[in-house]
Amino acid sequence: MKKPFGKKSKEVDESSSKKDKVEETSLVDSDYNRKKLFKKGINLMADEKLEEAIVVFEQALRIEPDNIETLMKLGYARFHIDDHGEALKVYDKILEIDVTNPEAWNLKGLVHYEQKNFSKALDSVDKAIESDPTYAMAWYNKACFLSLLNQVPEALEALKRSIEIDVKNARRSIRDKDFANVRIEEGFKRIQEVVVLESVRQGYHTLGSIVWTTFLDKADAESSLRKLLEKGLIVQNEKRDGLSKIPIYDLAPNIAEKMGKEKKGLFGITRKTLPKPVKNLKELSHAIQSVREAIEEEDVDKTIEVFDIFINPAKSGEQMIENFFDEHREIRLWKIRLKDRGQDYLIENKEKMLILFDNIEVTITKKLRNEINYSADKSQ
Q1: Which residues contact 307 (CB under 8 A, 6 or more apart)?
Q2: Considering the entire predicted model, what is its pTM?
Q3: Is residue 244 included in any domain, yes or no?
Q4: pLDDT tens across 92-112, in order?
Q5: SS in 3 state form for the chain?
Q6: pLDDT exceeds 50 at position 146
Q7: Widest CA span of the chain, in angstroms?
Q8: CA-to-CA distance for 220 and 225, rounded, in angstroms?
Q9: Does residue 339 fall inside a structural domain?
Q10: Which residues of 170-206 are buried (b: 16+ CB within 10 A; e: fewer)?
Q11: Structurally, how many domains does the chain consist of?
């Protein structure tokens, strides 16, 4: 027996289903269009067509007005055409959406810096650091602004903090005009020593190559080398150059164990040699399999949990610091930002994360193979 209204009910269901599909398609299409416009804007920025990029980013924002990624690029483009007032409006819009966004606070600080309003610039980067205490560039900018405000001890402290997070900031500071007020300070001289030590670690062993890679004056480089020798952080030897001998510098053995060394290979490309002893390589290898699965599944909680294996000194953190110092720092930053931004950040950085862990795994596999061969040789 046919049910009353059965056909009508079915027609309503079909109609509803079609409507849902139309809405879903519409959402997919709009997201596709936004991403297409965003990519076009990025390409225009790369070609330095900033005004055209601004128009395209604004078109993308008509589709999704609160998209932080698009707003960030729009603000950046306006900043670079010196449209500071509009750039500030964009960053304020981002902060209305997410008041803890450290990049927006940092970029807002740079706008104030360009306007020579260093106190406001300092307030902005302080908020960036409150949101993300490991944001190296915000610490670096804070050091610049403090130096410009003639707050020398505080500037040096902020600069040291930025270097602890990212050692590349030491080299960046050497020629930065914003640090004119602090160059004569003993604390800044110690930063120059860090720059020279890092240059030696990367495989630059002569005075000439150290001056070339660090941008230091010859006198400053020589002074830093003397102090590093006095502290026992480097050793000096000589090599023959024609009829004369020239000094060469290398890390002291105990320092090489802690930091690891980089040797220059073909075409001057550096390759890292792991310091010994390397412990628990198989455990690290297993952890890499777990983290790769978590990242590919876009499981934020699981990814954060496995990241802890690489960070926590009670687990594999110590081995990571000894053998993969830069990668350890990167994973630590990812963990913090995953907690703040969740799955969107994981999806955005997925490929970058997988590449980093692939590179670690390659190095571990080589090391394991070498140790197995070494053990086999010893047993024969």
Answers
A1: 291, 331, 334, 335, 338
A2: 0.58
A3: no
A4: 999 999 999 999 999 999 999
A5: CCCCCHHHHHHHHHHHHHHHHHHHHHHHHHHHHHHHHHHHHHHHHHCCCHHHHHHHHHHHHHHCCCCHHHHHHHHHHHHHCCCHHHHHHHHHHHHHHCCCCHHHHHHHHHHHHHCCCHHHHHHHHHHHHHHCCCCHHHHHHHHHHHHHCCCHHHHHHHHHHHHHHCCHHHHHHHCCHHHCCCCCCHHHHHHHHHHHHHHHHCCCCCHHHHHHHHCCCHHHHHHHHHHHHHCCCEEEEEEEECCEEEEEEEECHHHHHHHCEEEECHHHCEEEECCCCCCCHHHHHHHHHHHHHHHHCCCHHHHHHHHHHHHCCCCCHHHHHHHCHHHHHHHHHHHHHHHHHCHHHHHHCHHHHHHHHHHHHHHHHHHHHHHHHHHHHHHC
A6: yes
A7: 111
A8: 9
A9: yes
A10: bbbbbeeebbebbeeeeebeebbbbbbbbbbbbbbbe
A11: 1
Query: Is there a contact between 65 and 55 (Cβ–Cβ < 8 Å)?
Result: no
Residue 372 located in a structural domain: yes
**Is it the case that residue 1 has pLDDT exceeding 60?**
no
Residue 361 CA to residue 358 CA, distance in Å, equals 5
Work out the average pLDDT over 127-144.
93
- Tell me, yes or no, whether 348 lies in a domain: yes
Residues paired with 248 in a beta bridge: 237
Q: Which domain holds residue 325?
A: 281-379
315-357 tens-digit pLDDT: 887 778 777 878 888 898 899 889 888 888 899 899 889 989 9
